[in-house]
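Repro:
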Amino acid sequence: MKPLCESVEKVISNDDLLTLILLRVPARSLLQLKCVSKHWLSLISARLFSILRNAIPLRASALFLQLPPSFYGVPCEINFVPLDDTTCIASSPFRNLTFANDPGNISRIRIVQSCGGLLLCSSCPFCTSISEFTLYVYNPTTNYLVTLPKHWPAYYTSIFAFDPSKSPHFKVFVCASPPELSTDQGRFQIYSSETGSWKASGHAFNFTSRADKLAWRNGVYFNGCIHWIGKLEYGCSYFNLDEERLHTMPRPPVGQIFDVGVSENHLHVIEVHSHDYTVQVFEMKNDYSGWIVKYKIDLSLVCQVFPEMTRSRHLFKILSLVRREICREDSFLVFKIPGKVIRYNLVDKSFKPIWDIPASDPLTRPRGDYKAYQYFESLSYV
């Protein structure tokens, strides 16, 4: 038998074999392995390595939980909640977003959306002028950051589009009123990281009411398109980023209170029936012909173990649906009850607390509830 050191030497001297091994190492560990040698640093930092790694399906490992902005000047603390083994708590990449050279209040930079391991962030919504409002794209794993150039001032939504398995480039989509139009008219504007600039897209359209403007704010990226699911039938549409065309789609069979999300490249809508604590998850068909019921969830047993759920119904909130079918793991639902965040296994129906919600000062705590953003370890460039 050859000495172990000789076998190891053969492995580390073969770049192809070493690359295959490093591709299976967690992203945050890879950042530490860059310090092993200049050669390993060059290998891991290469754009080809990032592209090869992006072909591996992403796995959500944690949630960022963010409260609405505070009017009291309190820094916007973002809580990091690991989704798996909480006996060994992973360290948060950050607690506050404080990007250098931000002209607004640095304590109030906020997450707007999470997509493909990157975060779309914006400066404080209380900036004194639109010139202080800035959009960023940030990789919390590598700490890479890019500041986007200014877009049209009067805008109603910003949506992040990024799929690292298809392209290393991302897009940011805004629905806004350009200077030459009135505030009752809108148009789309798209930023591409490939070109580093914004461009106008599509024809101008009219907002018939304030509800129309609000409907554009809840868009999500899925399958190369931006999707909006409004409270009314006509409010369901999607915009194909390659064709730059707007299409309509069927509305899911839900009421006016629901959550929209994407997990493992599936578009879903979650509706909660608070009178009996049942949850239905609808999934859009690939051909956009309609919706199917993916999950029917009965949380009555959770109510028995945590009776505070029924006493404070207004504090119950769905945070995230995490699917792991590609990884051959059980999918689960994450939701908030008074004082705790619960992970509910959708296969074996087991559940457990994964985070104790910290108490806060009732005088400075902002109104509103937590909003969750999935965290994926990623080496993607921005």
